[in-house]
Amino acid sequence: MKLTLNYDELTNCMRCGFCQPSCPTFKETGLEAASPRGRIALMKAVVDGVMEPDDSFSRQMDLCLGCRACEPVCPADVKYGQLLEQTRDAIEDHAEHSWWVKGLRSLTFRHMFPHQKRMRLLGSGLRLYQRSGAAKLVRSAGVMKLFPETMRQMERILPEASGDGVVDRLGTFYPAKGTAVAKVGLFRGCIMDVLFTETNVNTAKLLAEAGFDVVIPDTQNCCGALHAHSGELDQARDLARRNIRAFREAGVDYIISNAGGCGALLVEYHHLLHEDPVMAEEARWFAERVKDITQVILERGHVPALTERLREGRPSGDQTETVITYQDSCHLRNVMKAGNAPRNLMSRIPGVRFRELQGADRCCGSAGIYNLVQPEMSMQVLDHKMEHVKETEAQYLLTSNPGCLLQMKLGIEREGLAGRMEAVHLVDFLYERMKPQPVGETEAALPGPGSTSAGQTAPRSEK
Ligand code: SF4
Ligand code: SF4
């Protein structure tokens, strides 16, 4: 840890404690050691040689959700997320895993996630399992009882895998409707493309409706977030280099993410590769161009035209009002700083009443694979979240990250709200409510880009 951790960053923490109220694990436990200030103090104690990085130390680092809600509230601008990544990397370098954990980590991090074709194969296998009746058979035979409760619940709420990906559906180029305002590269993700293929397809189509030429480089791979958060920084760097090359060759103006968890690492590639003499500059080029889909639409897209399409998409004579609410993706809000853009777009959907979710900025407990490795704390955080979700009485619970989406589906299932409430990705909700522009029609007939005060409209909300 002495070699890995940034000591200046550790000493930046002035122990004010402003971060404590924003931390979900501190809220749940009340323990200083489970708070950002406490964890930074523990890291510094190890680096100073005052304490050993023993099991209790590792447990506190593992218990951290990595949600980074402690960063925007910190007056000293302590880069907690980077300290956590560096700590986990150092711990992992010396971890003594059992043979099966080693095997599982190697299979996941080295042999599956970095290879999109293998991920697609996994998707095809999952699809076969779900469609062939094997899933029902496994459940009725009680096989799932061998697994922990969270995994059993997860298995039930998993969306149907498509067995293909966005490139299989649309090719590597999807043209703008009308004159293009910019050329964007769609970051398709690994899990995202296997389990939420339709959302990726809708993302490309929504971007095209907003006036963007969409390129989907087929040589891109997993963003590396799972690796970076699990102490596998070298592998995360390799993945980053491959992605930078793929999008650099595509010559795009922006790199667009529809998953807060991926976007937050993409936007920090320059930090990940700052010591790489060959790629540091390229990484900065890449990071400067990363945006969430909602940000790029509001900043550069044909917003009035899109709003018009949303208005036309509403069936005539429909006077009903749909109540929606929104759970922030922590990384989209705290790292990509895009908390307002999704709310701005939601405010433009006709026939929709937006109710702000109390504590929407607090992590839902998904946090990558946290809900699988720390199920107890994850479910504690989720159950508290769902108390506020119920208060909104919303019909749709929208979010912008696949992990959050699955966790929200799990929360709905656990609370018995299925049938009354549905968790949906914001992109799908927007695209499905639009009347797409017919091919051949240009934006000239519609209000042009830039004629909106992007990012400034407050959503029609109820507390
Ligand atoms: S808010 Fe920042 S400076 Fe204050 S205790 Fe937390 S991390 Fe340290
Ligand atoms: S990343 Fe989240 S869980 Fe971890 S210390 Fe910061 S606020 Fe707490």
Automatic annotation (TrEMBL):
Ranges of biased composition (kind: Polar residues):
450-463
Q: Which Pfam families does the UniProt record give?
A: CCG, Fer4_8
EC number(s) given by UniProt: 1.1.99.14
> What does the note accompanying the cofactor annotation read?
Binds 2 [4Fe-4S] clusters.
Recorded hits in InterPro entries, A to Z, give: 4Fe4S_Fe-S-bd, 4Fe4S_Fe_S_CS, Cys_rich_dom, Glc_ox_4Fe-4S, Helical_ferredxn
The keyword Cell wall biogenesis/degradation is assigned to this record: no
Q: Which GO terms describe its molecular function?
A: 4 iron, 4 sulfur cluster binding; glycolate dehydrogenase activity; metal ion binding
Where in this chain does the record put each 4Fe-4S ferredoxin-type domain? 3-34, 55-78
- Name the catalysed reactions: glycolate + A = glyoxylate + AH2; (R)-lactate + A = pyruvate + AH2
- Cofactors: [4Fe-4S] cluster
Record region (Disordered)? 440-463
* Domain of life assignment: Bacteria
What keywords are annotated for this sequence in UniProt?
A: 4Fe-4S, Electron transport, Iron, Iron-sulfur, Metal-binding, Repeat, Transport
Q: Does the keyword GTP-binding apply?
A: no
**Name of the top EC class for this enzyme:** oxidoreductase
Report the PANTHER family cross-referenced here.
GLYCOLATE OXIDASE IRON-SULFUR SUBUNIT
> What role does it play?
Component of a complex that catalyzes the oxidation of glycolate to glyoxylate.
Q: What is this protein called?
A: Glycolate oxidase iron-sulfur subunit
Organism from which the protein derives: Paenibacillus aurantius
